[in-house]
């Protein structure tokens, strides 16, 4: 069984991260922005796991698990904000996010 090298995995990770950055910078819908942030976090996880496999250690896998925990917390808080915004304005635009100030 032939193994995939480090460079192709990092190229895929960079492409995923770039797609996430483009999604965050160009979209106005909060749900799309949250999905783009999740895509960026998954690209970083792929890089961590690729480097860990390349060096033969488990450090990257441990970091990936921590990043997944942070992503789950971010998704929970982000979706709570989306629900709050939708209840108040009946749309989920980033322009309406400043309305949540006290």
What does this protein structure show overall?
The protein has 102 residues and is mainly α. It has a single domain, classed as Helix Hairpins. The chain has three helices and no strands. α1 (6-26) packs antiparallel against α2 (30-55) and α2 runs antiparallel to α3 (59-89). The longest helix has 31 residues, at 59-89. The radius of gyration is 17 Å and the shape is elongated. The protein starts with 5 loop residues before the first helix and ends in a 13-residue tail after the last helix. The mean pLDDT is 88.
CATH topology: Helix Hairpins
Distance between the termini: 59 Å
- CATH C-level label: Mainly Alpha
Tally the beta strands: 0
Number of domains: 1
Q: Summarize the amount of helix as a percent range.
A: over 70%
Low-confidence stretches: none
Strand content: under 5%
Secondary-structure element order, as H and E? HHH
The rough form would be described as elongated
Question: Key terms for this structure?
Answer:
single chain, 102 residues, mainly alpha, Helix Hairpins, 0% strand, elongated
What is the secondary structure topology, with strand pairs?
Blueprint: H1 6-26, H2 30-55, H3 59-89
Helix pairs in contact: 1-2, 2-3
Briefly, what is this?
Helices cover 76% and strands 0% of the residues. The model has no long low-confidence stretch (mean pLDDT 88). The chain has three helices and no strands.
